[in-house]
Amino acid sequence: MLSIEKRIEDLKEQIREHDYKYYVLAQPAISDEQYDKLLKELEALEKEHPELITTDSPTQRVGSDLTKDFKPVEHKIPMLSLSNTYSEEELFDFDRRVKDGLDENEKVEYLVELKIDGASVSINYVNGLLKTAATRGDGTIGEEITNNVRTIKSVPLKIKKDKSIPYKLIDFEVRGEIFMNIADFEKLNKEREKKGEKTFANPRNSTAGTLKLQDPRIVARRPLNTFTYSLISSGDELKSQEENLLILRKLGFKVNEHFKKCKSIEEVIRVCKEFEILREKLKYEIDGAVIKVNSLNQQEILGSIAKAPRWAVAFKFKSKQTFTIVKSITWQVGRTGAVTPVAELEPKLLAGSTISRATLHNFDEIGRKDIRVGDTVTIEKGGDVIPKVVEVILKERPANSKKTKPPEKCPTCGSKLFKPEGEVAFYCENSECPDQIKGRLEHFASRGAMDIEGLGESLIDLFVEKGFLKTYSDIYKLKNFKNDLVAIERLGEKSISNLLESIERSKEKPFDKVLFALGIRYVGSGAAKKLAAHFKSLDSLMSATEEQITEVYEIGESISKSVIKFFSDSHNKKIIEELKKAGLKFSFTEAKTIIVGDNFFKGKSFVLTGTLTSFTREQAEEKITDYGGNVTSSVSKKTDYVLAGEKAGSKLDKAKTLGIKILDEIEFQKKIIEAELK
After folding, report:
1. Fewer Cβ atoms within 10 Å of its own Cβ: the N or the C terminal residue of the chain?
2. Does the annotation count 651 as an active-site position?
3. Which CATH number fits domain 321-403+411-418: 2.70.40.10, 2.60.40.730, 3.40.630.30, 2.40.50.140?
4. CB 461 within 8 A of CB 437
5. How far apart are CA 315 and CA 303, in angstroms?
6. CB atoms within 10 A of CB 147
7. Domain 605-677, CATH class in plain words
8. 29-57: per-residue pLDDT in tens?
9. Tens-digit pLDDT profile for residues 583-630
């Protein structure tokens, strides 16, 4: 038995070392066939002796259990976002602020690293073994994705031992970026295209989406990669960012080779320019450089502001641009009937993906830029994500060029279009328009609405085309066609059963979610919550007058008119009756606060002002009301606290005049955590 145990340990160590050489160093030492032989021998021995299987074994990377819920994880140290800079002047300002925050005799060194365009991750190791992994989330609370991160072979399940490391590192955290190489991303998209599946927009989106898949076996087949850039160990007095990167390498983590230590901000600027030129030669996407104060002691002295550390900044590179030709201008119909122009382009590779379409927003935008079919145009990715037409190259315009005319009929159903007074959009008012149906179904099933897992765009398109779905009430009739659905190519018993279970679970969604899911124009999730709380039931809302609806706090005329119009439509009324029969909740039940008993928020009045970085306005309001607080729109003597974000204006000034207590986001997050722990 001892010899078997020794052989298992020997095999595990060999496989770990080969994983390190292949996935981290990109220097394979054996053939795939030899590697597979080692792995199969280990699998066979562990099968015979399951009592010898350990969590750090290479055979345990890919689990078979589905992750039903991604549990919230509180970061011990917040994963703050970085302030962005776009010019040399802003970098000089950063340098000045750093030096102002330190003693005059302090010398400052900076470390410049590449800003990898991926998904941030935090990984916790205890006694040398991977324990948990989590997303960044809002910076304070992330979601656990341990099972999925374990599948990434550049992430060690067990760290390498190195006696030259002068720290204990018993319980430490590693932070980094998960990403896909451009070539791997393109290969993945080609494979999906061959299977008739929807292709991904860019490497970052596909990476983030992959990390939230329920099945780690699917994640393991995706070409995920990592670069780590941060080491946090509360039990050790770490000295510098440069040293941390070198330690991470020794521990077996993949660290990007492109980082430089600089003794002045002038040197930092030179390195940033070098990195921007390097960008075109890299196998992965970057969107800038990150500049950090190298000394961890100086980092601690400088501290953080509400959203970002004072000791680090991102230098954003210019958006990538290229030239292409507008082959045609098409119009697409959204769920509300809004018709949006799209430029169909000569395909061009730009910032990691092939661009063949770009939104033109509305007809006014076309007119302002005078965009025509046949034009040569400059395109770029806004924030390196959304393709847009920047300008027309007029000298390249064909002689027979014709101005673009506004659409007259719906491109999908042929109905005459309507343009409301004072709006830039044209609308198709045919509620039976197929594209509107698909858009409404996607909205209805989305995470913020009914959250029907598995019912995405491609499946909705398929079900609409095959006649299974015409309205969202038909979703709850799919169970009657289970055998027909299972028989569809690429679907099967398990996937359809999972979908039908998710549909059944959606019936438990509260009234405000159902109201939002109906897709009433102008009624977002916040407005839906206010209407549900005020009217208590759908019947009460449907019978309300326009004046009664506008009496609801922060509900204006445009929302009230839209609500009245929606419920006056006989087709919508019929769908609602069917949804009622299906068992959806159309009445409001007072929500219980998360914490029963006293907490900071209970019974207090809050006003929100400025731009919040870690929450949307609605998310912050929801936190306050969940814990028994009240949110109002105006500051008065009755206001207890003002939550102030960036660029807070007159409300903040008034609060100071009245002596009302001001909360910043960091304090707000702390109070939420305290309330959760009570």
Report:
1. N
2. no
3. 2.40.50.140
4. no
5. 20
6. 22
7. alpha beta
8. 998 899 889 999 898 888 888 888 988 89
9. 999 997 654 444 445 788 888 888 888 877 667 676 788 788 778 788
